[in-house]
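Q: Hi! Curious about what N-acetylglucosamine-6-phosphate deacetylase looks like structurally. Here's the sequence.
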Amino acid sequence: MNNLRSGVIKSNRIVFPDGIRAGYLLVQGGKISGFHTHFSGDCIDYSEQIIMPGFVDIHVHGWGRGSFAYKGNNASLKWMSHDLVKAGVTAYLPTSGTMPNAFLEASLAAAADYIASATPADGAEAIGIHMEGPYISEKHLGMQRADCLQRPSIEGFEHFNRLAGQNIRLMTLAPELAGALELIRHLRAQGITASAGHTDATFAEISAAIEAGLSHFTHAYSGMRGFHHRELGVVGALMYYQDTYAEVAKQSGITIKPEAFDLLYRLKRDRRLVLMSDCMGYVDFPEGYEFYHYLRKETFRIKQGQLEIATDGGDTRQVCPCDYEAVQQLEMNFLDS
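A: Let's find out. The predicted structure is below.
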């Protein structure tokens, strides 16, 4: 179906905003052009399959057998596209991390090359780049690197965007940093979304950033100053300003409690709450890489080309990058954390 340019698709379960219907989808020029309950003629029969819009993941560092944030090469993006589409993702923003500058520059250039050369046969479409950092706060690093932080600047961003082939679509930054407001205004003028994330901003600082053009919040609740009734912080601001967008991910109750998710959904509703995965593509991390996952209480390391996962209790298991089913199961498990 990914390569279908024109034709008719039949299904008994086609998902629409108001429910599920049986019928026929007309496709012209690679786009859905109509729906009919009856049709006579040739069609592609997916009667027992569910037909629904593909997921667009705007915050994904890696998936399956590819990790753009940690390998930053053409191969990592090829594997991400190839594996993401199998999970229902049809388009995505490969997301960088706060990494050494030379690596970041090379990865942006690799992404520009991949975006320019990829075809529908490659799988999910990389439709731009999400830069998470390096303009973030050291007080809310999460898994980002303190030794790779940079000061926000228009000149620095334009340098990155030139390397990226003008493909940066979303920038996560800390609005309280010196130079951030000027950069936010510049991003808005360029049609690029500015998002608050890994930030210790006050409510007043977020308010000023929204006036400058900020419209988005990265992984709501996580990596940001929390809510207090006398200082609403970033969390209070993303709730108060209902026209802004808020990302959430991994809704099993581990990262965000269901009640906290429900509060945010009541305020944002369907049009302002943005689901994303924030997945990493662990099996494609560089050889020797090791980190401790504080939520899962597990240590991850790349050892002799395989991902080794050791629990605090001493149990160890290995995942081979060549075993697609094992890799996919690993990634799906991380959607629950």
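A: A fun detail: The chain has nine helices and 20 strands.
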